[in-house]
């Protein structure tokens, strides 16, 4: 609740007694719903370490490191309220990396704004972008969801797949006729006919596609076909004893896979040795794959330029090319977009990497196609926060306005009518992202160590405001969460009224503390019952039991908004309240959890803050900055 005005911003409610006591806590002390999810602080940081390589020339080229890092192990995430909650130490490194390469999904609005009145041209890599990285390249199958997402994009924007695979192979895997295809890292492009292009560029010929439609075929490495064929056979022969090695012929280049090869047998030296016989071929690196390519000056970046030209989009300012890719060979395309100062590269990576991309996507296709393409981006934002349906905006659209309405409603409805769910963060940059994703305000937590330092809190809030200002977040979208007492919790109506009189806008309860307490204590029958049902005691307190308990306006226990700007301003503290203005008296009515948490106080929070700082000093600045 905005305690200074009458509008309906985040609310502190102090509902009148409700018809069920909850978890042994007196119901008339029930405060407003807790804020939304918060980010975990993570644990230790591991910065990938370089291990010495086996082979000197491999080591001197930095190749062994490249090979090791070329396909990091998959990480596990817990989706909590659709936030990705850190489960291991590398998450902090990832979040700090994301400050430089923000999530494309979260930046949808920004990209969409920039794309207004521009023609988007979409370029997509295949492996690791549209299909998951799997052990067997033959099994890198694109999901149906992803296929329809790509089809949808192609409906609106010219779309091309630019892959390291042969063009035929990638077409076979994608199977969409409405796209343009470039195989062999862009050395085999089938694009739209464009007379100017085919006339001016050598190696560009007219051809027909699978449907018999006239197309331009550009194959700048044509003369290398016999050489690639020969080297392919040699590679197959020389690696046949290496268990797990696999060689692919992509017509204009060849790949030697070692994903399934024991590290001690990685074929790098063998491939190097073969290539000494082929000075016109070179070696590049992909994800656990060595790519043998002609030395010609052609790559995915050049392919993007060629396709833009073929599409007639090369010379206009109103074009926004977007390239999404996961691999080192995609960097050539990201670089071209950067150099043209046009469009965006989006890197798909679950680990921090140095890149020429502008944005990032964490985990593209694994887990059922999380990658959203622009056609879908808008709608995906709507489901970002599970708790959003509780917000007053949505509530308003259901016609609910206050507890004085006729007809039954749940207690959660009643509390919601006075309140708003506010997503919570401790990081300004994260707050900046949240502001783009949710309506209303975003709350930022002030360091718990300042709980004992009033002036420190004020200074901190001013400095946070300044940081938000720098990323263009206006103060009216913000809340600052400050420790309300030296134990950082509200316990009673009188305490809430005092905070309101002191100028607080919102009061929040720490659901998590009740949960923490309940995890290590039992004996309270209601808590035990909640735990037995496998529910969260903190959420039960604030949300679940509210939503289960129905109440009608004329019932004895219907909700009344007792705390409002007016009632708070007018509240006269009783002598008793003033006399017992100590933590214990304030906490007593809240039951055993409150008493116990009183002892723990702020220490836990302070400890966590120290730990996060310690971890950040290890990774900041991140190694790739
Ligand atoms: O440019 P792309 O479309 O990303 O193609 C690059 C290479 O992708 C394939 O290999 C990669 O994906 C395989 C399947 O997930 C995986 O097993 C392999 O380890 C990855 O390197 C493809 O097989 C290569 O030929 C492409 O060059």
From TrEMBL:
Q: What is this protein called?
A: trehalose-phosphatase
Q: What CDD domains does the record point to?
A: HAD_TPP
InterPro entries recorded for this chain?
Aldolase_TIM (IPR013785), HAD-like_sf (IPR036412), HAD-SF_hydro_IIB (IPR006379), HAD_sf (IPR023214), OTSB-like (IPR044651), TAL/FSA (IPR001585), Trehalose_PPase (IPR003337)
**UniProt keyword list:** Hydrolase, Schiff base
What species does this protein belong to?
A: Hevea brasiliensis
Q: Which GO terms describe its molecular function?
A: trehalose-phosphatase activity
Query: EC number(s) per UniProt?
Result: 3.1.3.12
Of which family is this protein a member? Answer: Belongs to the trehalose phosphatase family.
Please spell out the taxonomic lineage of the organism that makes this protein: Eukaryota, Viridiplantae, Streptophyta, Embryophyta, Tracheophyta
Which cofactors, by name?
Answer: a divalent metal cation
Reaction(s) catalysed (UniProt annotation): alpha,alpha-trehalose 6-phosphate + H2O = alpha,alpha-trehalose + phosphate
Q: In which pathway does it act?
A: Glycan biosynthesis; trehalose biosynthesis
Function of the protein: Removes the phosphate from trehalose 6-phosphate to produce free trehalose. Trehalose accumulation in plant may improve abiotic stress tolerance.
Query: What enzyme class is recorded for this protein?
Result: hydrolase
Origin: domain of life: Eukaryota
